[in-house]
Write a structure and sequence with these properties.
By secondary structure, the protein is α/β, with parallel strands linked by helices. The chain contains twelve helices and 21 strands. It has two domains: 159 residues, Lyase, Ornithine Decarboxylase, Chain A, domain 1; 248 residues, Alpha-Beta Barrel (TIM Barrel), CATH 3.20.20. Helices cover 28% and strands 25% of the residues. Strands 4, 14, 15, 16, 17, 18, 19, 20 and 21 form a nine-stranded mixed beta sheet that branches. The chain binds ligand LLP.
Length: 421
């Protein structure tokens, strides 16, 4: 459930009419709903209320400072994957002890910054990384808390570009080698082994792959404890999917996911950590765009929008489906018309949808892409020298710009022309 509903024939973000925001900031822009962010965080928090736990928001899905602040105030920790994300989490007021550092290629500088600024744990993904972290921690005279990410070789049954838990993926260490690698870690004086980490992929629409992975983690916990390791925390990653296409069967709910975690791992008396991104931020955001032209092509009509692949890359990159709805609610019974919905960027790939049925639209109309709060703004670029678009946060009947649209001058001024030119 989200908070983007039609009221009196106009799409609202919570209590704010979307056209009101469009008039203030100009299209295209992203809008996020505070109530939806809070609600989705709480669904996970409640689903794990049966035991000690921390929900760490995967901020790669949406790292705007205001979004992070909303979630931090609700009690969320953060899952970060770069020095930049770590700095953003700290700047939003998240304490180091609630920040988990994931990612396959952490640099020594990033490790040092996190150890100095405070960190809950590093999710270590390889032996060379373990060696580097041990050295950095020792040079600072501290011990780095770590979980080791194991690759359970499970098929997440999702898009190949976002599956991470198969042995051919670059992530984690093979679970079969875990015993050996944990022994190496335990022998390193700069490391403090606190648990096990696993993440098998994103936009999972079934629980079965999670079950297979978590059963393997349960078994591994027993094996490692028998070897003398104190496994007190299990980080289970993120990945629960959202219903992009409302006509499809809805993916499992957080409460069902929480019950599965309890069933597979609840008996181990471990603190549970999860790293959901998309399910918290995805349906908390929409991308609003204006129709520039309706072009009648040969055998098909194009809706040319002012948003493009540089603003929302998911359709071009993953063939992702996003619901696109008119901001003015169509009259009941109005005949739908098939459109190819495209952006102005000079690539054929700049296509959001083909032959999508929409009510008849005209230049100047606004449309909204649903489920755009995750992996939307964060994956945008200035391709075709299109400045990054604004982000707006709504809370009840108030709204605020939480990232403004740069001027052309601001965009250009980041380049410098060397003195010899
Ligand atoms: N933890 C780790 C270690 C991850 O790699 C990811 C996502 C998450 C948590 C959060 O997963 P989520 O709950 O959001 O599914 N750009 C792609 C998605 C990439 C996901 C990468 N890792 C997309 O737009 O679909």
């Amino acid at each position: 459930m989200d908070h983007f509903l039609y009221r009196a024939g106009v799409l609202h973000a919570e209590d704010v009419p979307v056209p009101t925001i469009a008039a203030a900031v100009g299209s295209p822009f992203y809008v996020y709903s505070t109530a939806t962010l809070q609600r989705h965080f709480r669904l996970f928090d409640d689903a794990l209320a049966w035991g000690e736990h921390l929900v760490c928001f995967a901020m790669k899905s949406n790292s705007n400072q205001a979004v992070l602040r909303v979630l931090a105030e609700a009690g969320a920790g953060m899952d970060v994957v770069s020095g930049g994300e770590y700095a953003r989490a700290k700047a939003a007021g998240v304490p180091g002890e609630k920040i988990v550092f994931s990612g396959v290629g952490k640099t020594r500088e990033e490790m040092r910054a996190a150890l100095e600024g405070g960190i809950r744990q590093f999710n270590v993904e390889s032996e060379p990384e373990m060696v580097a972290l041990n050295e950095v921690a020792m040079s600072l005279g501290v011990r780095a808390p770590i979980a080791i990410r194991v690759n359970p070789d499970v098929d997440a049954k999702t898009h190949a570009k976002i599956a991470t838990g198969k042995s051919e993926n670059k992530f984690g260490i093979p679970i079969a080698r875990a015993k050996e690698v944990y022994a190496e870690a335990a022998a390193m004086p700069g490391l403090d082994v606190v648990g096990i980490d696993v993440h098998i992929g994103s936009q999972l629409t079934e629980l079965e792959p999670f079950r297979l992975a978590y059963e393997k983690v349960a078994e591994l916990t027993g094996v490692l404890r028998a070897e003398g390791h104190e496994i007190r925390r299990l980080d289970l990653g993120g990945g629960l999917g959202i219903p992009y296409e409302r006509s499809n069967a809805a993916p499992p709910l957080p409460v069902e996911y929480g019950a599965l975690v309890k069933e597979t791992l609840g008996h181990l008396d471990c603190e549970i950590e999860i790293e959901p991104g998309r399910l918290i931020s995805g349906n908390a955001g929409i991308l609003v765009s204006g129709v520039i032209y309706v072009k009648n092509g040969e055998g098909r009509d194009f809706l040319i929008l002012d948003a493009a692949m540089n603003d929302l890359i998911r359709p071009a990159m993953y063939e992702a489906y996003h619901d696109i709805v008119p901001v003015q609610e169509p009259a009941p019974g109005v005949e739908q018309h098939p459109y190819d919905i495209v952006g102005p960027v000079c690539e054929t790939g700049d296509t959001f949808a083909k032959q999508r049925l929409m009510p008849p639209l005209a230049a100047g109309d606004l449309v909204a892409f649903r489920s755009a709060g995750a992996y939307g703004a964060v994956m945008s670029s200035e391709y075709n020298s299109r400045p990054l678009i604004p982000e707006v946060l709504v809370n009840g009947d108030q709204f605020a710009v939480i990232r403004s649209r740069p001027t052309y001058e601001e965009m250009i001024s980041r380049d410098t022309i060397p003195s010899w030119l």
